Amino acid sequence: MIHRFVSAVLKRWLPAFLVAALAVSTAGLASADSFFRHLRVDSLISDGIALYHSGDYRRSLEKLDAALSLNADNVEARYDRGLDLYALSRYNEAAAEFRTCVRQQSDFIPALFNLGVTEIALNHLDAAKTIFLQIISEHPSSVRAHFDMGLSKILSGQPEQAAKEFAVAELLHPQYVQAHYDRALAEYRTGNLVGADQETGEALRLNSSYAKAYFLRGAIRLRQGNSSGAKTQFESAAKLATDPVLKSLCTQILAQIGA
């Protein structure tokens, strides 16, 4: 009697038990698949980052594309893909990636910052200024945000405002050579030759091999009517320049100045 009762119970409950066991097994397989998928995505992103830092942007893109094919919502892969596209001068595509990152993660400041930089490359200067204004309002001590706001403004034909932004960048980071140089350029464009000369001096104090600073100082000397002083500065620029265009320009100006 007891055996018949046990048999009946097993017949009644065994199918349900098997279904439950199968469900647990399937869930385990799905969980394992998800785990290995995440592991693969992380590995591809890591490879992509390494290739980016080695300068192999095309192969880096391939790795990141593979990662996104496994997880299209991975914001890190999309951000790194944007960096690759920017490095390859594919600015419209880079901007699209950074915008997607910001939509996915509104507080992703590096993506927002790089979107601003890309907008500058695309000559979308008003858009760039809007982005950097947003970053500065949230992070007023961001040296690069002030610097790139200044860059956006000088390219927009606003040298006075650009000089102010570069000045803030200098206050936040006194050793920032590029900020001193670009402030000098902005001051030069406003006609403030004393300020421009002072800032080129700061740039050269921090980097005595800065060819563009010597070139700018030569231009300042010319506007001051000091041909001899200009000649000395252009000669230094020509000697230190690695850019063939800058070196050629120095040679042409020196030929016009004469002995």
Task: Please give a structural write-up.
The chain is built from 13 helices and no strands. By secondary structure, it is mainly α. The mean pLDDT is 90.
Please describe the structure with a list of short key phrases separated by commas or semicolons:
13 helices, elongated, mainly alpha, 0% strand, 259 residues
Secondary structure elements and their pairing?
Layout lengths: L1 H52 L3 H14 L4 H13 L3 H14 L4 H13 L3 H14 L4 H13 L3 H14 L4 H14 L2 H14 L4 H13 L3 H14 L3 H14 L2
SS strand fraction = under 5%
Low-pLDDT segments, ≥5 res: none
How many whole angstroms does the radius of gyration measure?
Answer: 30 Å
Anisotropy-based shape:
elongated
Number of strands: 0
How would you sum up the major sheet?
A: none
Q: Count of helical segments? A: 13
**Helical percent range?**
over 70%
Question: Given the helix and strand composition, which structural class is it?
Answer: mainly alpha
Oligomeric state as shown: single chain
The pLDDT mean sits at: 90
List SSEs in N-to-C order. Answer: HHHHHHHHHHHHH
Q: Ends: how far apart?
A: 123 Å
